[in-house]
C-alpha cells in the first residue's frame, strides 16, 4: 500500500474538486466495478477508471486481441495479438495504477454466471459488442439492484445511458431499463457489431470516457445521474444531445405486468 | 402541418400519430426509436401520441457495438 503522501499526490487533481475531494476518492478506492467487454469502449473506460483510483475492477471478456482491434482498442499493442483481452487489459491497468485490484475474467457472461458476478460488484459498466448480452446485463442488474452505465457505438454514433430500473424517480415513476429503449427483437440481431458496420476509433474513446465519467459520478454522487436520460453523440455532425428516456409501462422487465421473472430467457 | 424530421422541415398530414409517421416513411419500426421534442416515445405510446405542428422528431437507430 502506497503511503498517504503518494496517494495525495496521485489523486491531487481529484482532491481539489469539491465534488470529489477526499471523501469521493475514498469511495472510489472502496468501489467494485464490473466492466463487460474489453473492446473499444473498454479501452478508455478501463484506463480512466483505473487512473481514477477505482479500488476493484473486474473485466469479463472471452475474446483475444487481433490486429483489427488495434485501430481503436488502445490498451493493446502488437505484442498482445492472440492473447486474451481481459488478461492484457489487466496487465496494462496494473502498471497504470498498482493501487487497483484488477480481476480479469476470461469468459463469456451467461445466464449462469451473470447474477453472481454482478452481485459481487457495486456497479456495472456495459461496453460489450452485441444486443443479446446487453439484454442479459440489463436484466441481471435489475434483479441484483445494481446501477448499470451502458454505452454503445456504431459507425460515427454513440449512445450512453444509466439504468436504475429498480428505483423510482421523484414522482414515483419507475426509472426505465434498457428494454424501455430497445425491444426484445434486437436480441437476435448480430449483424450490427463493429466488424459489420464499421467504427471510427476515436469515437469509442469518447464514449468510453463519458461512460467512465458517469461511473465515477455514480460512485461519488457528483453531479446529476444520467438515469432516465439518454445521451446521443453524433460524431459526423459533432453534436451531442441528452434526451429524456421515459419508463415504458409495457416493457417485460419492470413494466406494469412483467413477464421476465429471472434470467432463464437468456439460458 | 409542418414538423421537423431529422433536422429537416417537412409537410405531413394532420392528425398523424407516431405509428402513422413510421408507416408513412416506411421506417424499420423494430430497429429504431422515435424521439419527439427531446423525449423517446415508448413503443406502447405510438398510437396515442399525436404529432403536433412544429414537433421535432428524430429517428434514433439502435446501436450495440462496443
Automatic annotation (TrEMBL), chain A:
One of its GO terms (molecular function) is thiosulfate-cyanide sulfurtransferase activity. Its EC number is 2.7.7.80. Homodimer. Forms a stable heterotetrameric complex of 2 MoeB and 2 MoaD during adenylation of MoaD. This is Molybdopterin-synthase adenylyltransferase. Residues 11-245 form the THIF-type NAD/FAD binding fold domain. Keywords: ATP-binding, Nucleotide-binding, Transferase. Pfam families: ThiF. InterPro entries: ThiF/MoeB/HesA, ThiF_NAD_FAD-bd, Ubiquitin-activating_enz. Belongs to the HesA/MoeB/ThiF family. GO terms for cellular component: cytosol. It catalyses: [molybdopterin-synthase sulfur-carrier protein]-C-terminal Gly-Gly + ATP + H(+) = [molybdopterin-synthase sulfur-carrier protein]-C-terminal Gly-Gly-AMP + diphosphate. Catalyzes the adenylation by ATP of the carboxyl group of the C-terminal glycine of sulfur carrier protein MoaD.
UniProtKB/TrEMBL annotation, chain B:
Pfam families: ThiS. InterPro entries: Beta-grasp_dom_sf, Mopterin_synth/thiamin_S_b, Thi_S, ThiS/MoaD-like. This is Thiamine biosynthesis protein ThiS. It comes from alpha proteobacterium IMCC14465.
